[in-house]
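B., you asked whether I could sanity-check this one before it goes into the benchmark set. Here's the sequence:
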Amino acid sequence: MKRNLKLTISFFISLIFINGCTNPFAPKFDETIGNQSSTISDLKTIDGVFQNFQYSYTFRDTTIYGEFISQDFVFTYRDYENEIDVSWGREEEMRTTYGLFQNSQRLDLIWNNIVISNIDSLNANIVRGFNLTVTLNPTDIIRVDGRVDLSLKKNPSTGKWQINRWIDRSNF
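And here's what the prediction gave me:
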C-alpha cells in the first residue's frame, strides 16, 4: 500500500515537473502574426487595401485604417438636403472614423463587385459596390448600400497602395 502511494505521489510530482509552469488554460503565443497567414494584408496589392479596409471596420481599428489613408486624402459625399458636395481631408476622416468605431457595437462591411477598374503601375481608380451594416445597439441598426469611387496611389519606394480620394456614392 505504501509502495503504491509512493508511486502515485512520484508520478504526480514527475508530471508537475515535466509540465513545469504550463497553464493548460492559457493559449500559446501566436507566432504566425505578420507572416503569410496573417489576417492583415501588407498593402502591396489593391485587394490587400480592401482586405485591410474590411478588417479595420470589423475590428473597429483606426490604426489599421490609417495605414491605407494617404496624407493628401480627400473624402467627398453628396449632401442631398443642401444639394452640395461636402469634402474633408485626412485629419477629419480619421476623427470621423474613430467616432464611428467608438459609437458602434458592430460594423459589417461587405465588398461587392468591382464596377470600374483602371490600374497602372502607380495609380488606380476603383468603383466598387458595398453593403455596410452599422449596429449602434440591438434596436438601432443602420444599413447603407452603395458604391465607393476610390483613387489609390502606390508609393514606389515601399510598393504599398494608399487611398488618396474617396467619393461616396451611397444611399445614405
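One thing to flag: The chain has one domain: 46-170. Otherwise nothing jumped out at me.
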